[in-house]
Every structure is written in structure tokens, then in C-alpha cells.
Amino acid sequence: MNRTLEEHLGKARVLIECLPYIRRFHGEVVVIKYGGHAMTDEALKDSFALNVALLKYVGVRPVIVHGGGPQIGAMLRQLNIASSFREGLRVTDEATMDVVEMVLAGKINKEIVSRLNRTGARAVGLSGKDGQLVRARKMELAISMENRPPEIIDLGRVGEVMGVNVELLNLLSLDDYIPVIAPTGVDEQNNTYNINADAVAAAVAAALKARRLLLLTDVPGILTRDKELVKSLSMDDVWELFADGTLQGGMIPKVKCCLEALQEGVEKTMIIDGRVENCILLELFTDTGIGTEIVGRGARTP
Description:
- By secondary structure, this protein is of the alpha/beta class.
- It has a single domain, classed as Carbamate kinase (3-Layer(aba) Sandwich), CATH 3.40.1160.
- It is built from nine helices and 16 strands.
- Strand 11 and strand 12 form a beta hairpin.
- Helix 3 crosses helix 4 and helix 6 runs parallel beside helix 8.
- The protein is globular and about 70 Å long.
- The C terminus is likely disordered.
């Protein structure tokens, strides 16, 4: 058998492997949090857009929530606006909030929409203000202090999600548009808030009863203390990893967002390496996947 024929047969086997997954996810909502290195590398940007377009073409209903922390930081430095963090959250005063909206909704969001549209898919960019898509309130952060009352930290315009306009997202998705959401929110007084993109993605997935929530990161997934990838976890397994200290740093809030989505009815969540080309297709449409899945109680196993 010549090499060319072997390559063609290999491609055919890949397509056959994908078929049951394509059938399983047809018509289902998949929420993807897009962030990290995948948003800065040109080849990975193209790969992401093509992956999402392919999902749409085979009948999946993708919804994108994107981050933009490094880009916000870069713009703040250019404008000589001081920025600080508390407990991993950017303190957001009025000037910072203006930059957050400018970068997230005005620049990054439109770039993602444009790149998706160039694939032939139809994407629409949204912020939390559009149609009151993401209803929010000011986040209250209290840090426990030993033998003292908790420290109350004012984060400014940092918010938490109180609700999602499901009707708007369903109208767009069912009309063959791909919603691309910038992670800002608005309260009843029309105040705008900066919200963690993982939290927005989890809230959107929960509100839409998504079949899957994928979080793109800059690590392979959840790792053991020996730096080995954990392929699959139950919710109970995750609580054990919290208890024994295996989960640390930035992975803690990501995993908490996954648990919140699972508790609200999302079937499975995946934490995957966005630095891997075609990571979305590899995770959803292959037998082994590439990241860590966290499975909700009673979830159907693919």
C-alpha cells in the first residue's frame, strides 16, 4: 500500500470516529470560553475560527464567551492608568471600566466576529449591555482574617452574574448565528461591570442547559502533583482535589465555575489546552479527548 493511500485511509478513519459524536451533539448547545494563548497566536486564532465554524456546519450550536485580560492590561499601560489586583481580580474604577469596555466589546469581540465570518459562518458580537444579556450586581469580596472581622475589599466595577437573557441567545442561535459574548454585565441602574469570563461562560452554559462547557486554558488540563494529566473527574473527585491541595492558583476559580455549571444541569465540562491546534474538535469529536473532563451527577457518558 502506497503512502498516499495510507494517508487517505487514515483521514477516513478519523471521519468515521467523529461520526457518532457529530450525531450526538447535533442540535445541542456547546459553550466555549475562549482565552489565553489561543487568542494571541495567529495560527491558533485561525484554528479556533475554523473549529467553531465546523461545529456550526455539522449542526452544533456553539456560543462563545471570550476573555481579554492581557490585552486590557496592555492598553492600561499604554494609557498610563494604574491597575491592581486583589484575590486575582482586577480592581476596576471608572477609568479602568472604560478601557475594559473599549478592549473587550470594541476591539477583541469584533476581531473574533470578523474572523468567524471569514470562514463563512455567521457570528454576532454582544456585550452584557446588549438586550440586557448579562444581568449583574456589584461583587462583594470579604477575606477571612484570623481572630479579626473579615476584610471587606471594594473592587469597584467588578460584578457577578445574576441572570442571562436566554431568549436573545436562543433567537440568534436558532437563526444560525454564533453569539460571541464579551464578559461585561449591567445592573438595574444601567451600571456596567467587569466580570470574569469563566464565570460568564459558566452562567451562560447553565442558563442554556448546554450539553458541554469548554474552557480553553494555557495548560493541558488538571494535573496531579506529579504533573500528570487527569483525564476524567466526578464532582466528588474534584472536592477531594480541593481538600488535598492538588488544585492551586488560577485553576481553582476555573474548576469552581465548572462545578457551578454542572450543578445547574450542564452535562459535562472540559478544561483543555488552547495552545493545541484544533483542540475543540479533538476534545469533542474523538474517543480520548485531550483535556480534563468533569462529569455531573447522572451525566450520560459519550
